Amino acid sequence: MNPQQPAPPQFPGQHWQPGQIPGAPSSGQPGYSGQPGQPPVPGSVPPAPQPIPQSPQPYMTPQQAARAIMRRAVNRPAGVVLLYAVVAQALGVVFSGVAMLMWLAAQSGDPARARQYVMLKLNDAYSAVMQYMGVISLASFGVAALILFLLRRRMIARRGFWVGDHGEARRMRAAWALDFLILTVSAQAVFVLLQTLLSAAGVDLVSPSMEALSESAISWEMWLYIGLVGPVIEELVFRGVLMQSLAPYGRNFAIVTSALMFALYHGDLVQGLFAFVMGLVLGFVAMEYSLVWSIALHVFNNAILGGVLSEYAASFGDAGNNAYALALVVIGVIGGIAVFARHGREMRAYRDANRSPRGTYWGWTAPWFLTYVILSGLLVAVSFAGAVLG
User: N or C: less crowded end of the chain, CB within 10 Å?
Assistant: First the structure.
């Protein structure tokens, strides 16, 4: 959080004039017809015009052209994220189903009789599969990430994708790193307080993803996925491919869009709310300090706050869990107030300096983005309803 606001770096591509969406005609230009002209070659004689029958092109106002540009800009990276999420979830279901059938076949002694055990020992089979969720998660999300890499290998293989191009990323200092760590604890504290207040009012926010995680075996494969592989892949997808693709259209827009899709990706109301707030912090860190630092912060949240410290507190039973929750609240609230008191003015200045041109958020009407939001929203609603009812 540098008190001096440097000129916005050209990350990851060219930027636009203030108030102008890249590629959109200005209000003084004629309507955009979708047929860009070609500049003449100096010294050449233009050929005689030939009457070529053309279908009339629909007239587009500058506002309509800007909206169309934004829909195209958002549609492709949103489609890539949707493909990754669908492949990862589908592979997880397939691998889990195969593991369950293998367990049932082993229990029955006859693969032909495995179907008879599905209803009789479904709970036992589910418990058996959860013992291998670490391996299943590593396999399914790893394959999905490999497909993503193949689709965006030129982008991902660049050094600047990970550490920022020369002169663009700020240098992380210890004091700023500490501020980001405190904001991560503050995000944890806010939702601990929210859950506590709602529980006192008789409303328990149930997190299906956390319940499924607690049912999984605490194996080294699961710890590897939660603490390292998962954060790396999620940062690669959301703060890397998605956010960097949208950065030329406004930093605020890119950070908010990636945070929203990151929240919906969790398919869980409780985790989604937390993921949105964390997505804003991670997005700012990746935008200004590089993807490597957002990965480090994500690993800290998953491996340290949600892993080592949480498990150590849980070893003392309910008293340990309560003490850990209280410590998160105290450190998070006090630390968060201190960070906002010191840097609140800079945060507001950053927000104002990186506002997107009018019409940028029309990109959210892109078909693949809407498909992602609808499918993820349905998954969130179904999982939350099932947790509440059952």
Answer: C
The per-residue pLDDT for range 253-276, each reduced to its tens digit, is 999 999 999 999 998 888 888 999
For helices 62-108 and 122-130, the axis angle rounded to 10 degrees is 110
The secondary structure element, H or E, covering residue 132 is none
CA dihedral (365, 366, 369, 374) positive or negative: positive
DSSP label at 30?
P
The whole-angstrom separation of Cα 170 and Cα 68 is: 33
Rounded CA gap, 328 and 276, in Å? 19
**Amino acid, single-letter form, for residue 121:** K
Residue 53 CB contacts under 8 Å (≥ 6 apart), including other chains: none
Report the SS3 class of residue 282: helix
pLDDT tens track for 157-212: 999 999 987 667 788 999 999 999 999 999 999 888 888 887 777 766 666 667 67
Q: Quick one: tokens of 59?
A: 């007239």
